Structures are given as structure tokens and as C-alpha cells.
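Bit of a strange request maybe. I'm writing a small parser for C-alpha cell strings and I need a real example to test against, not something I typed by hand. Could someone generate the C-alpha cells for this chain?
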Amino acid sequence: MSLWDKLHAKFTLPADYELQTPNLPHFDPNAPIIRQECFFSGRVQGVGFRFQTAELAQQLGLTGWVKNLDDGRVQAVFQGPSDKISFIKKALAHRPYIKITHITSCELAVVPDEHTFEPRY
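Reply from user aminoacidic:
Good idea to test on real output. This should exercise your parser:
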């Protein structure tokens, strides 16, 4: 069993979890496409943060990646409509087990040929 499969089994949310979360908002189809690097501090390692980030980013159609840092933070790069990136940063704070205390973000140049969102190890 791969590491990804083990994490998926450990941190998969209950089948009825979607009933416990608010519906996704209506996003602006004209929102600009941006790329944003974010550093998350708090209880963000050992709680399925990368898995949940990747799962939600894929649901939103965002591209990029997420990885743990040696200093206890998590680094993520999101690319997609600006309103969806704002949404994912807020939504992650309400996920089970996660406690975000600080987010630092900066914009990067858009990568036109990126098509997936994935956790990095």
C-alpha cells in the first residue's frame, strides 16, 4: 500500500461529511487566474492537512501542490481563480483536526501548463 493510500485511508472524511459542511459558494466565472504561495502555521502537520488540501483543491479545480516543511509549517502553491484560492484558505481552517494560526501569502507568476494539484513529500 502506497503512502498516499495509507493517508487516504486514515484521513478520509465520513461519507456524510458533505452534509455537515456548507454548500460551495457560487464563484465568479470572470475571476482572474492567479498563482499564490502560502505558508500555513499552527497544527498543520500530522493532521491530514496535505491530504485534505489536495482533496479540496481538486474539487475546486485548482492546480499546484502542498508539502510539509521542516519547521512545522506547510507550504502550498495554489493556481486558479482568485475567489477559489481565497475560499480554500478559509475552508481549510474549518476542517477536522486542523488549527491554522497564521497564513503568509504572496503572488507568483502563473504557470500555464500546470494541470494537477498534488501533495509533495
